[in-house]
Amino acid sequence: MTKRLPLLFFGHLANDTLYTSLPPLLPLLAAQQTSSAATLALIPTVYLMTASFLQIAVGLFFDRKPKTILMPLGLFLGGVAVSAIGFVESYSLMLLLGFLGGVGSALFHPPATSLASVSEKRASSVSFFMSGGDVGLAVGSFLATTAYAVMGVRGTWLLILLPALAASMLLVGVRQPLEAHVQNSVRPDVKKLGFALATAIFRAVAALSFVTFLPLYLTERGLSFSIAGTVLTVMILAGAGGMLSAGYVAEKIGKRRAVSMFLLLTGLWIPVAVLTPPQLSYLSYGVLGFLIFAVHPILVAYSHDLLPQNLGAASALMYGLTFGLGHLIVPFVGVAVDVYGYQSVLLSLAFMPFIAALLFQWAPAAAKTRTIY
């Protein structure tokens, strides 16, 4: 483990607290705004879409000019923007701040993921780094809910603390890359990533659908809203454990085998989780979170093997494009839920990992190349 990896982990944790701090804020904004809930929901949507698709441009830029200052800059910008939402009354300004928060996240992810990948044990390093983001998603929701309960909408000022601390640590602890073992100005051969991207998108749709609809499904089955929300938190935290474990598994059996194994296990476990009695939800969805989130960091590390001269672009595509498209597809899953019901649709999601595993069989083999900064 490189000395900078714990700093990158903490930076990822701090960055991802910002997104999950937004949904708990919406009911408070709705109480003081004339805007509808659907209109207010555009704030986290603008954040997410900006963060997802702008990453591609940032990744391409970082490959040509590897400026590590992008990470603390992104954290600080995102922290200031999100923390300011509770202090403005104009809906247009709230949307603008959501956009700027997304810009901050986009500035952080490609450089940080690229630097985390620079290791003799790429899979385990990337997995460790990415698990920080998963922990951040859970921490952000908890901290924001607590802050809003005590201080109301003005509690958003607390949201800048973790990003500001992480930005300061990265500014001091992660210096400008001194040397590149490969030339980063090479145009990325995106065709190489075709099947890996398709694999990641199918996995993302399944994972994001469960994150979106699980609380609603569990409340339909008789659990309270608070317990259903806690089950989702357990699932996300278990996903962090899955990410950590997946890296070490990939080092032992290889990335391709590890991806296929976790995808097949996910497809087999989804029906078990969906049909398990609600009283066992913590266990069943904890296992599902472990399996379904484990695949993502291995796919990111694999994309770096395919495009060792374009780590920023590969990171942005596997992060931004897959999650952006995944979130755009999830509403259509919601339409299916309205027609067929939660259980039928969630059961059908079991096909997604199997299709992803099948597509991954056509992904090209990657030469072992190491990038040194």
- Sequence of secondary-structure elements: HHHHHHHHHHHHHHH
| Oligomer description | single chain
The number of helical runs is 15
| Silhouette | globular
CATH fold field value of the largest domain:
Growth Hormone, Chain: A
Structure description:
- By secondary structure, this protein is mainly alpha-helical.
- It has 2 domains: 5-173, Up-down Bundle (Growth Hormone, Chain: A), CATH 1.20.1250; 190-360, Growth Hormone, Chain: A (Up-down Bundle).
- The protein has 15 helices and no strands.
- It has helices spanning 5-20, 26-32, 37-40, 42-64, 70-84, 91-117, 122-151, 161-173, 194-220, 225-253, 255-275, 281-306, 311-340, 342-348, 351-360.
Notable traits:
single chain; 373 residues; mainly alpha; Growth Hormone, Chain: A; 2 domains; 15 helices; 76% helix; transmembrane; transmembrane helix; transmembrane transporter activity; MFS
What's the short version?
With 373 residues, the protein is an all-alpha fold. 76% of the residues lie in helices and 0% in strands. The chain folds into 2 domains: 169 residues, MFS general substrate transporter like domains (Growth Hormone, Chain: A); 171 residues, MFS general substrate transporter like domains (Growth Hormone, Chain: A).
Topology:
Layout lengths: L4 H16 L5 H7 L4 H4 L1 H23 L5 H15 L6 H27 L4 H30 L9 H13 L20 H27 L4 H29 L1 H21 L5 H26 L4 H30 L1 H7 L2 H10 L13
Helix pairs in contact: 1-5, 1-6, 1-7, 1-8, 4-6, 4-13, 5-6, 5-8, 6-13, 7-10, 7-12, 9-10, 9-12, 9-13, 9-15, 10-11, 10-12, 11-12, 11-14, 11-15, 12-13, 13-14
Keywords: Membrane, Transmembrane, Transmembrane helix
GO molecular function, one term: transmembrane transporter activity
InterPro entries: MFS, MFS_dom, MFS_trans_sf
